[in-house]
Every structure is written in structure tokens, then in C-alpha cells.
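Hi Q.,

Before the meeting this afternoon, I wanted you to have the fructose -6-phosphate prediction in hand. No need to reply - just skim if you have a minute. The sequence and ligand are here:
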Amino acid sequence: MCGIIGYVGPRVAREVVVDGLRRMEYRGYDSAGVAVLDGGAIEFRKKAGKIANLDAELAISPLPDTGLGIGHTRWATHGGPTDDNAHPHVSANERVALIHNGIIENFASLRSELVAEGVVFRSQTDTEVAAQLLGREVSAGADLAEAMRTVCRRLEGAFTLVAIDADNAGRLVAARRNSPLVVGVGDGENFVASDVAAFIEFTRHAIELGQDEVVDVTADAITITDFFGEPAPSHPFEVTWDLSAAEKGGYDWFMRKEIYEQPKAVADTLLGRYAADGSLKLDELHIPASELRSIDKIIVVACGSAYYAGLVAKYAIEHWTRIACEVEIASEFRYRDPIIDGSTLVVTISQSGETADTLMAIRHAREQRAKVIAICNTNGATIPRESDAVIYTHAGPEIGVASTKGFLTQVAACYLLGLYLAQVRGTMFDDEIHAVMTELAATPPLIQQVLDGLGPIKELAARFVGTKSVLFLGRHVGYPVALEGALKLKEIAYLHAEGFPAGELKHGPIALVEGGVPIFVVVPPQGRDQLHDKVVSNIQEVRARGALTIVLAEAGDAEVEPYADVLFRLPKVSTLLQPLVATVPLQMFACELATLKGYDVDQPRNLAKSVTVE
Ligand code: F6R
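Predicted structure with the ligand bound:
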């Protein structure tokens, strides 16, 4: 939530900053702003709304070409999405401009202290207290980095801060606690940003900034300390993708592009993680096999789509490993008193690696000696750094706010983990593991086959432009697929949508069924799955009550034909792997419907990509 960028070097900072903001707009789009330093004075422009509004403002009232600048795109927390509440915030004495991602929890008491000193606030944000405190410190003579450390020691909550000082040409200072920040290392120029996408055009060399650290950046030097001024170790890494991955490449939406990237994303996630004999090779899992053998419980913790990937994982992990596996929403997990000890394995799933609730859940688990394995898509993010081990999904950057390839690769990584645990613990024979792994490795072309057959989806979506409510049914792993299909519709088509386990229908939800209600049904594979016939009965039950049934069933399943108003064929895969193919038409349906309704698919209202605040 909120994208921030800072630049120092020979380029025109304003251009670098605004272009970087454009690539991070998925992090928040309530307002945007930029500040530069010009001959000892801070100049800034900021506007409510999307970056296009800032562009228009800059066209009317340009900023000078200078080599130091900061910029921000906001997801509002404290104070509405207005021009005044937009960042950067400039201190009353006009010494510093500051941008912030996160929530300063003790801002009210700090604000009272400053008001008592006569400071006049210009916004309703929590951020402005940090700007005013910093302004006060530097005008009292503190060095900018020292002032930042002093201020950070007083702040509670989550924050990434970046500041420039009117008296410090060619220098910016940033700090982080519980919110992301990476440093981009250039040649005679440097960057700081929430996400490497902001500077990938200029450098792939990056440094993760650790928890409670301050970085002092000039064009030629990067100095990292903790909040007390002690030198902190640097954690450099290389970004493995390039600018084209962060651009739409001819598609109308990032989401559509990302849906089409799924065969490659899943293939890349599986690549190098199994041998020719089908045995699993998770070299990155630096947890000794003896410890993995002593685990007596697994808890998967995640939010949103990642939580649904965790629900899929439960079916696979319990079936393959015979270890009890719970799945819990991270924001619930951390505020109850879960039973965890040294023999619990906590698996966290997070595309961004920065989700605040998931991060707090990890800390909660590790405090109680649980081992934590993260499944994550973002190199250098906080969640993998704070976990005992990480399995990276290699989906490339996911920029559409609604997760698609992120979800599918999380599911694939969960299968890898489940099979690996089965291998280590000897709960499956080698030939069984080989058979599943071979089938899993063969799924990318099947996902492609689903994509190639999606033509009629647009036509189908056109029938539902005026629809108020859509239901999704599934059983077993089809249930999380139903939940994911419903979430996509809510997020981007602003449509009431619910996913139910089909077996629960008669316990309440069937009362929602009336003439013409569209119901998507994910049908388990025929013949090989005991639930197939039960789901076919469920289809008949809702159809008898007037529902319009849109059925996803595997090729050759003739039993569903009489009861399907619309039928989508899925490639044949075994039940546990079906989410990899069954989710795709539901993603595309949401994308098409939102497009037809004229909504911004990549930047749906009220949402932001990385939920870095509670
Ligand atoms: C749904 C979606 C969200 C995320 C959730 C977790 O389309 O994108 O529900 O799945 O916010 O995000 P990560 O995976 O980054 O922790």
C-alpha cells in the first residue's frame, strides 16, 4: 500500500520519479505527488486521484529539472484522498519534504505535542507528524540521517519514510520498519523505492533494507545504519526480470497479460525442482530433513487469494504426507492463541512478501519456536527474510491488483512442498511421487489449452453485465477454486459473488437460488472421483430452482451435459491438480465482465496490491 520512490543522480529526478510512480500505481491510487530540491528550496506538486491528475498539474505548473527528487502514490489511511493529504508533506519550516508508507500508530500524541509548540498542520494524515518532527530536528542542527534516526525512535507502527532536506543538496535519507523499501544501486546514481519495478529500467542491482534501518543515499554512496547509528550489514541481490515484465506488452490490462503468462509462470516455478526420476529437489529449503520428519502439525497462514491457495494445499498435504494441516487467515491467526510449538511447521503464502497480517503471523509463530517456510514471489521481501526457509514462485512481477499468476504459482509451489514432505517422511513410494510430479510437470501446456479455448468467455460475460449476484460451487479442491472465482468478481467487477462448498448448499445457501441466478460449478473429474456424481446432483438441484448453470467439467464428461446451460471443458487431470486448470476460466470471466462494465481492471476501487498495513 502506497508506492514511494526517491532518486539522486544526473538524470531529471522529476521524470525518473513520476515514471517510477506509474509502475507502482498498483500500490495505491488515491493521490500522487512529487518533490524536488531546487537551489536550496523544496518544490512540490501533489494531486488527489490517479497519476494522470499529477501529470496534468505538472503540465500547468512544471517542476524544475534537478537531480534529487521523491514521489508517492497513496492508498489513503488517515485523512481522505484530497490534495492536502497527498504526499509529500513539507514541514512548516519548509526544511524537509517527506513521503510515507504505513501507519504511524502514535501520531495523535505526537501531533498534540507539536501543536502545543505552535506547529500548524496542513493535513489530516498521520504522516505529517513525521515531516514536522524531522523539520524540527534538522532546524535544531541535526544531520539529516541523525534526525531521521531520532524521529524513527519516537514512532510506533509501520513506516517507510523517505525525506529530502532543503539544506542537503544531492542527498536523501530513508528508513523502514514493517513496510518495504529497496535500494537500487546505479552507476553514479541511486534509487530507493517500495518495489524494484520503480527503477528496473536503470538498474537490476538492489539492496534490501532491513527492519529498523536508515539508509543515507547520495549519487555515489549508500550508508546503512540501524536506528541508533550503528552500521548495519548490506543485503544485496540481483533482480532476475527486466522492464518488459513490468509493462503491458500490448495487452489492455496487466491482469489479462498475467492470466496469459500462467503456463510459463507455473513452468518456471516447477523448473529445476525435480529430477528426471521425479524426485523432488528443494535445495533452498534449508531445514534439516530430521526436523521435517519431526513435524506433527502444519498450519498454513495467508490472506485473500493466497489463503485460498493454502486451502488447496491442505487437501494435497494431508493426502500425501498424513500430517494434520490447518489453514488460517493471517489476521485471525495472530490474534488468537494458536497451539504451536517446536514441532509445528507454519507455511506462509504471500505473493508480495509484504502483507502486514502475514508478516505478523510469522513473527507470532516463530516466537513460539515453530519453523516457518514462506512461499513467496518477491525476492528481497520481508516475509521470506523473516522465515526459516523460502520457496520462491517464479511468476515474475504481478502488477494487476487481482492476483492470477500469483495464485496459480502458489498452488504449484504448495504441491512441490507437499510432495517434498512426503518424500522426506516416506509417506509415498518413489513411483507414486514420480507419477504425481510427472503429471504436475505436464500441466503448463494444459493451462495453455484452457487459455486457447477461452474465446466464448467474452460472449458469456456480455450476458451478465446487468447481473447483481453470482454463485460459485465446488467440492474438495474445487471449493477453494469457487472461492477464488467469487473473489475475482467482487474485486474487479464489483459484483456480489459467493463461493460455497456444493455439499453445504442445502444447509442454507440454496435459499439464494432463484430464476436466472448464474451459478458456476466446478465438477470433479468423472469416474476417478467419488464426488463427481454428488456435484452433478447439486447442479440438478439448483437448475430445478431456475438457476442458470455454467459448468466446468473435464473433456468427455457426458453426465453433466443435460444440466449445463453453459459448458466449459477442462483438460483431464487428477482431482488434486484440477485447480491449476479450473481457476483460469473464472479469472478470465471476471476480467471480461469488468472490462465490459467499463471498470479499471488493474486498479479496482478501494484496493491496493500490497496490503502493508493491518
Ligand atoms: C486477490 C488478491 C489478494 C491477495 C492478498 C494477499 O486477488 O490479490 O486477496 O491475495 O492480499 O496478498 P499477498 O499474496 O501479497 O500476501
